[in-house]
Amino acid sequence: MRHFTTALLFAAASSSLLAQDVITWIDGTTTEHVRVSDFTVIEIKWLGGGNSDKRSSDQVLDVSVAKVLEAFKRGYAAKEQNAAETADMFLGVARQELTKTPFLAQFGLWEAGKFLMEVGNEDEAFPIFDELITKLPDSGFVPRAMAMKLDYYFATGKVKNATKFAKDYRELATTKGFPIGYINEANFYVVMSGAGGVKPAELRSQLENLTAQTETSSPMVANRCRLEVANSWRREGKLEEAQALYTRLTQAKIIDKSTLASAMLGTGHLHLAKANGGDTESYREAMLAFLHVYIDTPGASPDIVAEALFHGADAATKWGGNDHRLVAGRLRYMLRSDTRFSDTEWAKK
Q1: Model pLDDT for residues 294-303, shown as the tens digit of each residue
Q2: Which residues of the chain have pLDDT under 50?
Q3: Fewest C-beta in 10 Å: which of 9, 28, 68, 195?
């Protein structure tokens, strides 16, 4: 699932010769002191305590694999420095391993594409994700790459691209027997791709039905559904209904970063709506909610973080409290100077 969308993160491994792999599951628990032997779109396998075990790959949140960190140590070192050559460092090794060691290669392609997405370079990231999907179709990163592409399409309003790709994802997930978490995620994207053609009440009904279906098997998908329901209520001016869902999301234990960031962003917009009557305290609350997006979820989609910075600066100005000019200026500077946001609509306003 997504970086979850949406996404896999890799912690630094011990330099000890006895370094072990660690799997973090979507419920926050971990499996440690093991050796991951395979990671496919269907399952993750590992060895530990003299026994082998496996589990559905849609339950994986993070995985730290010692031999991966060693193979791509230059790439990870470059990533720590946010170096321009980071993607190339991962790709060089990954392409050497494509036929020899696909298990290793998938990590390099994923890291390269994800890094480029995180710095706002989607034009270079997408071909890498496509390479991963076509050359390593059994990789555990295939659904994650597809979800990241879809999130970008939705964030940038590319509805036609999103509609086709969402259907492609669902067809692939169902025909290839992907785990239920990925099928649920694909269904979510299909519902959202048709959002423009149905009335808000009908969209909420579809999302609430999907929430009920995924609550136990795919809690992250259920929370993404709740987010869209909350956004729908907010757009209709039903602020209390929206606030209840945003609060639930910000307190959720199983939630991906972009969904959490979007919930905080929505909370900021709620306070802005309340401030329209001249309530300066609501502008302050809005500013703080937008700041939390940048501070708590800096790795979320650049479009989400950029929107928070833009509206945070505006809210600070309208608040007018102590240091409001300093805060507003700082947020505008971060929005316009950070290359991650340069291609977003918010940096161009």
Answers
A1: 999 988 888 9
A2: 1-18
A3: 28
pLDDT at 155: 84
Give 205-254 pLDDT, tens digit per residue.
999 999 999 999 999 999 999 999 999 999 999 999 999 999 999 999 89
What residues form DSSP beta bridges with 41? none
HEC string of the chain equals: CEECCECCCCCCCCCCCCCCEEEEECCCCEEEEEEEEEEECCEEEEEECCEEEEEEHHHEEEEECHHHHHHCHHHHHHHHCCCCCHHHHHHHHHHHHCCCCHHHHHHHHHHHHHHHHHCCCHHHHHHHHHHHHHHCCCECCHHHHHHHHHHHHHHCCCHHHHHHHHHHHHHHHHHCCCCHHHHHHHHHHHHHHCHHHCCHHHHHHHHHHHHHHHCCCCHHHHHHHHHHHHHHHHHCCCHHHHHHHHHHHHCCCCCCHHHHHHHHHHHHHHHHHHHCCCCHHHHHHHHHHHHHHHHHCCCCCHHHHHHHHHHHHHHHHHHCCCCHHHHHHHHHHHHHHCHHHCCCCCCCC
Q: pTM score, two decimals?
A: 0.87
pLDDT of residue 277: 65
Q: Looking only at Cα atoms, what is the longest distance across the chain?
A: 66
Decide if 142 contacts 102 (C-beta within 8 A). no
